Amino acid sequence: MDVLSAIKKRRSIRSFRSDRIPDDIMNKLLEAIQLAPSGGNRQPYRFIVVQDKDIKVKLAEACRWYPGRPQGQGFIAEAPVVIVACGSEGSAVVRYYKDEGMTLAIGWDVPTEVDKESVAYQSTMEMDLAIALDHLTLVAAEEGLGTCWVGAIDEREIKQLLAVPDDRRVLAVMPVGFTDSWPEPRPRKPLERIICYDKYSRNE
User: Fold this and answer.
1) Which of 27, 103, 110, 115 has the CA that lies 20 to 30 A from 8?
2) Neighbours of 32 (CB within 10 A)
3) Does pTM surpass 0.90?
4) pLDDT tens digits for the chain (204 residues)?
5) Residue of 105, 68, 70 whose CA lies nearest to 90
6) Is it true that the peptide bond before 67 is cis, omega within 30 degrees of 0?
């Protein structure tokens, strides 16, 4: 399967079989994460592979939001594997502006006077992590596995559940597994509404 075919095949799957993922396929998924590019090749992340049934149930319960799904998202616990993506802004490349212009640094080295809440301050950590997870989703699609990006999470509860250090972030949870339910693709905006050339244009 070529890359574009995998992109077209990928879906957000919310119904999983309990079938175990073979070791060779699991290794491919993890290698896809490992090979992903990141700012400065810093790889400022750690991915927790959750397979324990009881932990998966608690993890699914922590994937909640109010008022939408206060009880969590039970389908997550159905998957044989759940990937929990953790990031470290301190070890990521960051960009910020000082009087002399734009500066790149590693998060730990940013001067304390820099306003990290400013829109001019940006860490590559979230982008790096998203690239790695997207690599995983495409290899999963190629292997006939479903995935689902889950960002509606109680981060504090998940950090406590999985012993994630205070200086790390939990940004996403991704169940992975075989499915009997492969939905039709959801609509996307036409290209002319998301692509512009040479300059930004508001053609929304």
Assistant:
1) 27
2) 19
3) yes
4) 899 999 999 999 999 999 999 999 999 999 999 999 999 999 999 999 999 999 999 999 999 988 878 889 999 999 999 999 999 999 999 999 987 799 999 999 999 888 888 889 999 999 999 999 999 999 999 999 999 999 999 999 999 999 999 999 999 999 999 998 889 999 999 999 999 999 998 876
5) 105
6) yes
Residue 131 domain-assigned (yes or no): yes
Contacts of 109 (CB under 8 A, 6+ apart): none
| C-alpha–C-alpha distance, residues 185 and 85, integer Å | 25
Task: Confirm whether 68 is domain-assigned.
Answer: yes
β-pairing, 81-87 vs 93-98, is unpaired
Number of domains the chain contains: 1
Q: Is 143 helix (H, G, I), strand (E, B) or coil?
A: coil
DSSP state of 99: T
Q: How far apart are CA 150 and CA 169, in angstroms?
A: 15
Give the total residue count for the chain: 204
